[in-house]
UniProtKB/TrEMBL annotation:
Span of domain Methyltransferase: 49-143
A GO term, aspect molecular function: methyltransferase activity
Record's protein name: SAM-dependent methyltransferase
GO term, biological process aspect, one: methylation
Pfam families on file: Methyltransf_25 (PF13649)
InterPro entries: Methyltransf_25, SAM-dependent_MTases_sf
Alphabetically ordered keywords of this record: Methyltransferase, Transferase
Family annotation (SUPFAM superfamilies): S-adenosyl-L-methionine-dependent methyltransferases
Lineage: superkingdom: Bacteria
Length: 257
């Protein structure tokens, strides 16, 4: 079973295969996240840190929309892939490796984001608290933090067993991608098996990558944000935000309060 860094190091080369068209999806996500941030009063050209950037699914389209973006991730392989994708598209962005629990910044950011259910890789109260404290430290006064996470309240209640396989076709070759989830008895953690079957000229290949998530409930994340010093915490579900996962936004305190 891979820990998060190993999981994403192994997935970096194939991450785009989970999508019918990764970049089209990324551009759409960037547009939606931009709208959410603008609704929260974030100005054009704001400085933004994507502290769990992966291969750049959110960081790159936000940079293309005019944000001054820095991306960091625990996985060096994912960061290298993000750097290649940025160069291929001529997108200006600063990228590097960093542990979200140990963030530092020479200058504070207007915005920090962590999308794609990244926070649940932090499986203990201490790790989540350390990450949120670090995020708060690198945010400017009245800065905005945005995260997207799966709706674990509903998923645990219904004991959802995974994501049904989907088939994509590229250059005449098919691939099948799906997820199997195994819950602990207390429904506090879930083991995530990501499987891919890829059609080759000489047959099919199969791969399975495994990691574990903490099934953080919404109330737990809200409490952790509050404990870390965030205020104005707002949750938005997909029908309201247009994003594919629930989104939470929160602010740091102003200096004059």
């Amino acid at each position: 079973m891979a820990e998060p860094m190993d999981f994403y190091d192994s997935l970096a080369e194939d991450y785009h295969l989970m999508f019918a068209d990764w970049w089209t999806s990324a551009v759409a996500q960037g547009e939606t996240l931009d709208g959410i941030l603008r609704d929260r009063g974030v100005p054009e050209g704001a400085t933004l840190l994507d502290c769990t950037c992966g291969i750049g699914t959110q960081a790159l389209p936000l940079a293309a929309r005019g944000y001054r973006v820095t991306g960091s991730d625990l996985s060096a392989s994912a960061v290298a892939r993000a750097r290649d994708e940025a160069a291929r598209r001529g997108i200006p962005i600063t990228l590097g490796t960093a542990d979200v629990r140990e963030l530092t910044a020479a200058e504070p950011f207007d915005v920090v984001i962590s999308a794609d259910n990244s926070l649940p890789h932090l499986r203990t109260d201490d790790d989540l608290g350390a990450a949120l404290a670090a995020i708060r430290t690198v945010l400017a006064p009245d800065g905005v933090f945005l995260a997207s996470v799966r709706d674990y309240d509903a998923l645990a209640r219904d004991r959802v067993a995974g994501v049904m396989p989907v088939t994509h076709t590229e250059n005449g070759a098919r691939r099948i991608v799906g997820q199997s989830w195994t819950w602990t008895d207390d429904l506090r953690t879930v083991t995530f098996d990501l499987f891919m079957l890829r059609q080759r000229e000489d047959g099919w290949t199969a791969s399975v990558r495994t990691t574990v998530y903490r099934a953080w409930r919404r109330a737990e994340l809200t409490a952790a944000l509050t404990a870390a010093g965030f205020t104005d915490i707002v949750w938005a579900d997909p029908p309201d935000s247009g994003y594919y996962q629930p989104v939470v936004t929160a602010r740091t305190m102003r200096r004059d309060t």
